Amino acid sequence: MVDSPSSIEQAFQAIDSQGRRVRPGCVLIDPDRIDRRINDLAAQIAETYTGQGQDELVIVAIMTGAMVFLADLVRAIRRPIRMGIMIVTNYPGVATKAVGPQLDYDLRIDITDKHVLVIDDILDTGGTLAKVTERIRSRSPRSVRTCVLLEKDIPDPRAIEADFVGFRVPNEFVIGYGLDYDGLFRNYPGIAVLESAEHEG
Ligand code: 5GP
Ligand code: MG
Questions:
Q1: CATH architecture group of domain 34-47+54-89+97-193
Q2: 132: helix, coil or strand?
């Protein structure tokens, strides 16, 4: 991957906690496309819940990866909502292989009889959304739907499919727009494949 040194990806180059040089590599989705797609998703979501009661939609975001997507998506949804969070960790530290979803912070708001929309950054095996939606269903919501910005193109069937999907991406470790590697790159405004020094030619 050769980019001009003045490129925005170059500005995000960093050293990870094991001393490797890392940066956003191949850009999959630029910020303008994300912006446009979020407006479509927000319209679809508002339409889906039309007439469902003005104060009954609760958006539950899975942190930390969903934080940037959440911020942009909720501001594009033209209807009242409430918001809550859960924190689930899959890739601790420099891991780029999942260790399985671990619940670090549980939802603290009441969802009894509410329509719940779970938001996550990316759907891979579906293990995270399956675990979270099962937990949410045990608290008697009126309905549970799911929305992800990205869906990975994986060969195997998933534990769960999402109701609203922004983009499909190849089966690679991606970063940016909330998605991190070793805590880095959440503020990179597009979606890119992680590039690390050991992969460079
Ligand atoms: P799943 O449980 O569906 O296999 O994985 C979904 C979770 O793993 C997401 O919430 C996300 O935090 C994390 N994840 C999956 N794939 C990626 C990826 O390519 N990059 C990053 N940064 N996180 C990922
Ligand atoms: Mg996550």
A1: 3-Layer(aba) Sandwich (3.40)
A2: helix
